[in-house]
Amino acid sequence: AEVPTRTPGLIGRLLGRGGQQEVLRRTLDDDMLEQLEELLIASDMGVDTALRVTANMAEGRYGKKLSVGEIKHLLSGEIARVMEPVAKPLPLYAKKPQVVLVVGVNGSGKTTTIGKLASQFRAAGKQVVIAAGDTFRAAAVEQLQVWGERAGVPVLTAPEGSDPASLAFDAMEKAARDGADLLMIDTAGRLQNRKDLMEELSKIVRVIRKKDPDAPHNTLLVLDATTGQNALSQVKTFQELANVTGLVMTKLDGTAKGGVLVALADKFGLPIHAIGVGEKIDDLAPFDPEEFAAALTG
Ligand code: GDP
């Protein structure tokens, strides 16, 4: 997978890129800090997080003259420090099958992410089963079947409009029968009717717990990084609907506004298991805080 490129990054936009700019020294004063805050806010970091990051950066250094390189280094260091605790790959337990419930609004990249994850786990020698739990969207089921074929993973489907919980139950049985390591269950992403969605999700959980009281072992929320601050309200909503245990951030290849990841880490502290960096099957990368911070700061 390619590393997302964002040129110019925050500092690049503020101070110009590379070259002789690198030797300029700037005083870390109120004016400078305000400009940095504005840039961080424009990157979707949110006001609270932006203020905290700049305050930490200025601590013990206020009024000092710093080179552009030093400013970049300090800022990316502060951002990486916020991100480090959340950078964790999806844990694989010995338990078979490990059940991962995948939630998120339509269009966030759920289907694509399930396909990419299935492919990665297959490559690691794991046996994977996918359940196409968004039974109301025929197109979503078809898409998931295409991804299943690409990844070489069976996709369990049910007739359009049928009960996703009953499909999930069948999938639990199939995964156990096949000795699968991992079962990923796709779910509907219609937020228009929250009550229905909540009932649907809790019914799926109730039913799979008949087979394994610890399931789902992970509930993965897929978020589109290009939706900016909207991602924060989606986390809140899905935390009310399900017991979200981790995030995958998609479409980080297409945005200079990845600052929302910092706001998410700061506010919720949920693990970021992976990032989507393109539309292809290999375009899912582990989340690397230092690389991310350096790219964002630029
Ligand atoms: P779903 O409705 O949540 O299942 O979303 P899909 O998986 O169908 O994805 C919606 C659109 O986003 C599709 O066009 C995908 O190709 C695209 N997409 C998903 N993940 C990424 C990503 O990481 N980068 C880019 N550029 N596009 C993505």
UniProtKB/TrEMBL annotation:
Biological process terms in GO annotation: SRP-dependent cotranslational protein targeting to membrane
Entry annotated with the keyword Magnesium: no
Domain annotation AAA+ ATPase: ranges: 96-247
Superkingdom in the source lineage: Bacteria
The EC number(s) this enzyme carries: 3.6.5.4
Membrane topology: Peripheral membrane protein
GO cellular component: cytoplasm; plasma membrane
Catalytic activity of the protein: GTP + H2O = GDP + phosphate + H(+)
Record localization: Cell inner membrane; Cell membrane; Cytoplasm
Keyword Hydrolase recorded: yes
Keywords: Cell membrane, Cytoplasm, GTP-binding, Hydrolase, Membrane, Nucleotide-binding, Receptor
MF terms (GO), sorted A to Z: GTP binding; GTPase activity; signal recognition particle binding
Residue positions binding GTP: 104-111, 186-190, 250-253
Location (main, coarse): membrane
Domain SRP54-type proteins GTP-binding: start-end pairs: 97-298
Function: Involved in targeting and insertion of nascent membrane proteins into the cytoplasmic membrane. Acts as a receptor for the complex formed by the signal recognition particle (SRP) and the ribosome-nascent chain (RNC). Interaction with SRP-RNC leads to the transfer of the RNC complex to the Sec translocase for insertion into the membrane, the hydrolysis of GTP by both Ffh and FtsY, and the dissociation of the SRP-FtsY complex into the individual components.
Family according to the record: Belongs to the GTP-binding SRP family. FtsY subfamily.
Subunit comment: Part of the signal recognition particle protein translocation system, which is composed of SRP and FtsY. SRP is a ribonucleoprotein composed of Ffh and a 4.5S RNA molecule.
Protein name per the record: Signal recognition particle receptor FtsY
Organism: Marinovum algicola
Gene name in the database record: ftsY
